[in-house]
Write a structure and sequence with these properties.
By secondary structure, this protein is of the alpha+beta class. It is 32% helix and 31% strand.
Length: 203
């Protein structure tokens, strides 16, 4: 049996300082190998052609407005047919960069959808502002980027809620509410490679 090799990305790969998030924009034409990472990620497609996102073994064609949340325990990759590409915004963030209850509300849910019209414009504007604050913070010295600013945190949370609610509507479901089970799932996602006891979960 051929061994499946998967790359593990760490937050330090993208930034040397202790910032709570990274925001960037990228045009890509080469496939992304199967991988996972120790941070959360939001990808938002500004433009795309002949591109596919593979999340936990499920393939979904990408289109303008495709947006999704990737959890630390997820595995994913990108595939392209001939002439394929995408132009996307990306935010990578640590668990403590946003409100825990908001993050818990999207654990173990199908948080990927396609934003159109006003929703697309709203998400694009949120990304642009987050990227602005990230670029501004990255130019400073010392401890200025030790945690994301309150403004950036609230903007990222707004994106999460937008994706959550539009994904629920796209799948014909009610918006997920905070629950103790989802908090437990959040803990498991954060510590899924550690030895977890029932006492840990109860706490």
């Amino acid at each position: 049996i051929k061994e499946l090799k998967m790359k593990k990305l760490t937050y330090s790969t993208y930034i040397e300082k202790g910032c709570g998030y990274v925001a960037d924009r990228k045009r890509q034409t080469d496939p992304t190998p199967l991988h996972n990472h120790d941070f959360f990620e939001i990808e938002f497609m500004l433009d795309t052609r002949n591109a596919v996102h593979v999340l936990n073994g499920r393939k979904r064609p990408l289109e303008k407005g495709s947006i999704y949340i990737i959890n630390p325990s997820d595995v994913h990759s990108h595939e392209f047919d001939q002439g394929g590409y995408f132009d996307r915004y990306n935010i990578r963030f640590k668990q403590d960069a946003v409100n825990e209850n908001i993050l818990a509300s999207v654990i173990n849910t199908h948080c990927r959808c396609v934003l159109r019209d006003g929703d697309y414009d709203t998400a694009k504007k949120l990304y642009e502002i987050v990227e602005y604050y990230y670029s501004k913070g990255s130019e400073t010295d010392g401890d200025a980027t030790s945690t994301p600013s309150e403004i950036s945190s609230r903007l990222i949370e707004s994106l999460i809620l937008l994706i959550r609610d539009r994904s629920a509507a796209e799948n014909g479901e009610e918006a997920n509410q905070k629950s103790q089970i989802q908090k437990i799932l959040l803990y498991l996602h954060k510590n899924f490679k550690e030895d977890i006891t029932l006492e840990d979960i109860a706490n």
